[in-house]
Amino acid sequence: MREETAVAESIRVLLVDDQELIRYGLRLVLDAQPDIEVVAEAADGAEALRAARQLQPDVVLMDVRMPGMDGIEATKQLSAALPNVRVLVLTTYDRDEFAFGALQAGAAGFLLKNTRPDELVAAVRTVRTGDAVVSPRVTAKLIELAAPHLPGPAGREAGNQLSLLSEREREVFLLVGRGLTNAEIAQTLHLSESTVKAHFGRILVKLNLPSRVQAVIRAYELGVVNVGG
Predict the structure, then answer these.
(1) Which of 141, 187, 190, 219 is most buried by its number of CB atoms within 10 A?
(2) Distance of alpha carbon 221 from alpha carbon 214, whole angstroms
(3) pLDDT, tens digit, for every residue of 12-22?
(4) What is the pTM of this model?
(5) Whole domain around residue 46: which residue ranges?
């Protein structure tokens, strides 16, 4: 009975990468964990979508640069069709515009392929709970790289969205957009970390944002943070 319960509670992972060796290495790391189960592998986005629809994994580790359907399109379709499935983007470079595109498409996090095994395991567990795992600073780097492709501030629409926030929430939103962690924001604004977390939670609700990643992106889109600022 205990074994059945453990299996039911395992984090079910789908691996997506066109390189078999990469998938093999990821599987070795994840299958060694008692609470994580790799349920399938896929070599491209189309195959990943078919497997995800059939198996309903909790987390998808998604390479962004693949032949055929790439990780951006696959993430976009996955996010629309299976919103409860969390996508972690995998890439070789921390300034990969493809990774940024996947974040915009709804990915919950961003990992470099040379991430340490313990960090990979922690990331899978974290996104399963609904949190983002991407470093805000890495997200900011990606946004600066992709800034020419972002829509500019939406004038009245931007003002309307920002008017939903209190003065303190705007301060927190600005610092989130600049890539600061909650601890750093707390130190900057002379607040407790729990207070910052509460403010940030209200920001997500008021702006209808699913994660910190999307909050950083929105800060740039609304002109709250400028490239380099």
Answers:
(1) 219
(2) 10
(3) 999 999 999 99
(4) 0.68
(5) 2-134
Q: How far is 199 from 189, CA to CA, in rounded Å?
A: 12
Is residue 140 assigned to a domain? no
Same domain membership, residue 126 and residue 163? no
Which residues fall within 8 angstroms of residue 10, CB to CB, at 6 or more apart? 35, 36, 37
Is residue 83 helix, strand or coil? coil
Sheet with 109-112, edge to edge strand ranges: 36-42, 11-16, 59-63, 86-91, 109-112
| Position 48 in a domain | yes
| Same domain for 156 and 184 | yes
- Asked if the model's pLDDT at residue 44 lies above 50, the reply is yes
Q: How many CB atoms lie within 10 A of CB 17?
A: 25
Q: Is residue 139 part of a domain?
A: no
Domain count, the chain: 2
Q: What is the pairing mode between strands 11-16 and 59-63?
A: parallel
Instruction: For tokens 């996947």, name the residue.
Output: 102
Which H or E run contains 120? Answer: helix 117-128
pLDDT digits (tens, 9 = 90+) for 98-116: 777 777 788 888 788 888 8
**What value, to the nearest 5°, has the Cα angle with vertex 180 and ends 160 and 219?**
20
114 burial type by CB count under 10 A (0-12 exposed, 13-18 middle, 19+ buried): exposed
Q: Is residue 228 included in any domain, yes or no?
A: no
Would you tell me the crossing angle of helices 182-189 and 167-177 to the nearest 10 degrees?
Answer: 130
Backbone angles phi, psi at 95, to 5 degrees: -120, 55
